[in-house]
Design a protein that fits this description.
161 residues; alpha/beta; Rossmann fold; four-stranded parallel β-sheet; 8 helices; globular
Length: 161
Amino acid sequence: MAKKRVYVETSVVSCLAARLSRDLEKRVFQKKTREWWEQRHRWELYISPVVLQEIERGDPEAARARVACVAGIPVLPDSDEIGELANKLVAAGLVPPKVLDDALHIASAAVHGMDRLITWNQKHIFNPLRIEAIYAAIRQSNRIPPVLLRPDNLMEEDHDD
């Protein structure tokens, strides 16, 4: 059985590379992300140029740690199709214009035929109130949408197979 192709969104990389948080919820996300990371060989992982741009921002030491986490993960090429699909997601009100990068993550995963997109961004990407509408918008663009998941959901899903 072929490995699932998984797009790793920036929030997952940030959670993986961050120092252990004092905030209980963040600490749980970090723990789950690290558990997923230990099993990453089970999937084909990919990132996009947007992920690289986002992880290079901020504190230089933290940025280096984030960049080190993705070393060796293939970077999907950018294309006009990605920008067009991202703009459709924004125009449909599914992703706010101020967070176009979130739409670009979804669009990149869809255009490149990823099976899954993992994220901790539950506001604009893995938002239960918008997921079905996002899938529908992607299908209207003649693409198969990636399943939007959190890293812990991906591990659970894979154990169910």
